[in-house]
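anyone seen this seq b4? input:
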Amino acid sequence: MIIDTLANLGKYVALNPLFQDVVDYINSNDLASMPIGKVLIKGDDLYANFAVAKGKTKAEAKLESHDVMIDIQIPFNVSESMGYTPRSDLAEQPYNAEKDITFYNGLAQQYITVQPGMFVIFFPQDAHAPCVSEAAEIKKVIFKVKY
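predicted toks r here
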């Protein structure tokens, strides 16, 4: 997991060849004004999901992980807390290959707060519980990057 400001995202492009495409997309678009929905950037290898998510309590936010895709999550309008637990600390659960997701029971081991102007990257080894917020709605983008 990586958390940092958007101004520093370019420092992480060596971690995945598609990260440079994410940086270029962010620099070429006003993310906060994009319509809700999925935008293909490089087919199924890189796309952006622009969403308005419901704010959840820690108990409502389910831990999840992905085997194929990396998440780069960026909130726009409010701060968002996200739970984190190393996947190696969790009991195996059924994997949904069609949706590239595994859900886990229980609360995360720790929580981080991501402010507008920041991002968090979750790799396949990072179980995460997004959308923890007292705000009714969280406007955000999730870049899905092939691992």
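Residues 19-28 form the longest helix (10 residues). The chain is about 5% helix and 45% strand. kinda curious what u guys think
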